[in-house]
């Protein structure tokens, strides 16, 4: 079988092997997908060894997504703009780096959840690597405005500047939103939930028509998704759909086949609830 895998540190909780095995089964692809725990100082040698021993592709996850971009011979535009890579393709002795996180989120929002985001007002909470990965693809949808709110203003400002040529982006602190009207979509891209923390998210951002989306996901409701539901959001969703959709985009890059994501998403979330 052709070899694929996911590299991260730590990696034991990754659902990628399950998702890719379900995709492979579904589409009759002869492949294997390994879970590879790789410490930051071993990343380069681990990638090279995987390539040398016939590996065909890798997913790259926390904390390696920006570091691994240096190892690619060529990057897609979206990986370059995001400054991060979550998918490597090994072909003709070359390493091609791509990033399917943003398009995975967009597919979940627009195809699975049927949201109309053209002309919408979008708020992203957080200004780290996750925000950098999704801002470009969200701006491609031509929202009316994109606000990046962060605990540390300077990081939000740096991202707003980075993305300013792609659409209307502004930066602020959590308690200093540019307007008091609820947003159409509020995305949590902070890593606070991971650490079991719940920062003072801006309450005025959420109204009865607001869709809230946490990039994190869990077997039970994440702190942000609980907070959003308590604010009376129209919907409060976790990032299971993005997880499966970004995997499907990687699978398609590797195998040229588009898997049926809805079946797999149902399998994942039924197991989770
Ligand atoms: P990632 O790659 O997951 O985005 P990161 O680059 O470390 O990780 O960014 C983490 C984000 O979560 C940042 O926006 C961070 O805010 P700061 O820029 O102010 O550090 C945010 N974050 C993490 N813990 C937080 C907390 N307890 N309260 C508010 N924001 C938090």
UniProtKB/TrEMBL annotation:
This enzyme's EC code(s): 1.1.1.25
Active site per database record: 65
Alphabetical UniProt keywords: Amino-acid biosynthesis, Aromatic amino acid biosynthesis, NADP, Oxidoreductase
Limits of the Quinate/shikimate 5-dehydrogenase/glutamyl-tRNA reductase domain: 116-192
Ranges where the SDH C-terminal domain occurs: 239-261
Pathway listed: Metabolic intermediate biosynthesis; chorismate biosynthesis; chorismate from D-erythrose 4-phosphate and phosphoenolpyruvate: step 4/7
Residues engaged in binding NADP(+): 77, 126-130, 150-155, 215, 239
BP GO annotations: amino acid biosynthetic process; aromatic amino acid family biosynthetic process; chorismate biosynthetic process; shikimate metabolic process
GO terms of molecular function: NADP binding; shikimate 3-dehydrogenase (NADP+) activity
Binding-site list for shikimate: 14-16, 61, 86, 101, 217, 246
CDD domains in UniProt: NAD_bind_Shikimate_DH
InterPro entries, sorted: Aminoacid_DH-like_N_sf, NAD(P)-bd_dom_sf, SDH_C, Shikimate_DH, Shikimate_DH-bd_N, Shikimate_DH_fam, Shikm_DH/Glu-tRNA_Rdtase
Function: Involved in the biosynthesis of the chorismate, which leads to the biosynthesis of aromatic amino acids. Catalyzes the reversible NADPH linked reduction of 3-dehydroshikimate (DHSA) to yield shikimate (SA).
Protein name per UniProt: Shikimate dehydrogenase (NADP(+))
Organism: Woeseia oceani
